[in-house]
Amino acid sequence: MFLKSFSSVVVALTLLVGNTALAQTTNEHLAFHVQVGSDNDGNPIILDAGSVQGSEYTILQKQGNGITKTTFRASCAEGRLFSQTSSLYSADGKLVSKKQTNQEITPQPGTPEANSMEIVCHTANNEGNQ
Fold first, then answer.
1. What's the CATH number where 33 sits?
2. Does pLDDT of 25 surpass 60?
3. Model pTM above 0.85
């Protein structure tokens, strides 16, 4: 397991068992991470549940010695998903690059994109029904 602090955002990538989630508190901030898939090397792909605001959320993925942070927006009613930004952070937590992606993603069942969208849309739907 390795943890990196990126300014006020705590990013946790860890080897998780099954669909187990990791929660930790730092500076009174609750960070809740859910593994939504794995890359080709078996590294976990993580939904930062603390980043969810409505249907916008962030997925974290190990890339080399750093971490890629991708922000998505789901149109839950239409079943559509859009990538908004992609940021690369170095191993010491410094922003290396950030780009606006603004493209529609076609999530395939069982992929991290589809899994995270399902969680976010289910949560958004439940909050709307309360």
1. 2.40.128
2. no
3. no
